[in-house]
Each structure stands twice: as structure tokens, then as C-alpha cells.
Amino acid sequence: MTIPGKKVATLEVPLRWGDMDAYGHANNTVYFRLFEEARIAWFNSLQLGGPEEPTGPVIIKTSATFLKELCHPATLLVETYVGKAGNTSLDTYYRLRDANSGEIYSEGDAKVVWFDRTARASAPLPDALRALAAG
Predict the structure, then answer these.
(1) How far apart are CA 111 and CA 133, in angstroms?
(2) What is the rounded CA–CA span in Å between residue 66 and residue 124?
(3) How confident is the chain (135 residues) per 10-residue block, as mean pLDDT?
(4) What is the pTM of this model?
(5) Which CATH number fits domain 6-134: 3.10.129.10, 3.90.1200.10, 3.40.50.720, 1.10.490.10?
């Protein structure tokens, strides 16, 4: 699959033994946690949406395509891409690959809505995110 958008971050993550399930591989929920970890690390690097901030990201839709079984031990690269930006939302995409072989385990996406934590409603997307999506 060709991921739309522009790559904005790569996070290296070891697969933990505890990420394995009774079937001897990483459960599908682990892939979503890895996407989440990469997304939060990226937002933190931009100093956006931290828990102490009045606004931040929420996910309204996410999906993944599981291409290859993920087993311990593995060192992973989670690549984050940005796509289309709306007034309050941003399309994000993820590729999970092996850090050594480059094999792709999974690709996914998440629609991020910027959220006002006090008003409990969507908020304007920060200019820094809008600029990344446009550039």
C-alpha cells in the first residue's frame, strides 16, 4: 500500500515479551498501541496536546491492515505520516516495519480531532499541524 502524505516521524520500539499472546505472537491490539505510542511521541516532540494543555488530540476513527505476524524478539520502526488537514482534524498514517530487515508488519491510519478539554468539543487544529500537512 502506498501511504498518502508526508513522513513526519520515526520511532524505534522494542517488542516486549509481554506483548505476546497465548498464540505466540503479538495480538492485534499491540499494533494499535504502537501506532498510539508513535503518535504521542510525535505530538510531544512538537510540544502539542500534552495532558496539561487545554486542548489535545482524540481519535475518532482508526484502522490497520495486518501484513505479517509480529513475534518476539523484534525491534520495530513505527513511521508516522500526515495527510489531509481539516479545520479541526488531521489524517495520520502509520507503517510498522522491522528495524533490521525493513519488512513491513502493518500499515494503519487514524483520524485525529483536536479537542477542547474544558468545552468537551472539537477545537481548531494547531497551526503547526496544519503547516505540516500543507508542506
Answers:
(1) 13
(2) 33
(3) 89 95 92 97 95 96 96 97 96 98 97 97 96 82
(4) 0.94
(5) 3.10.129.10
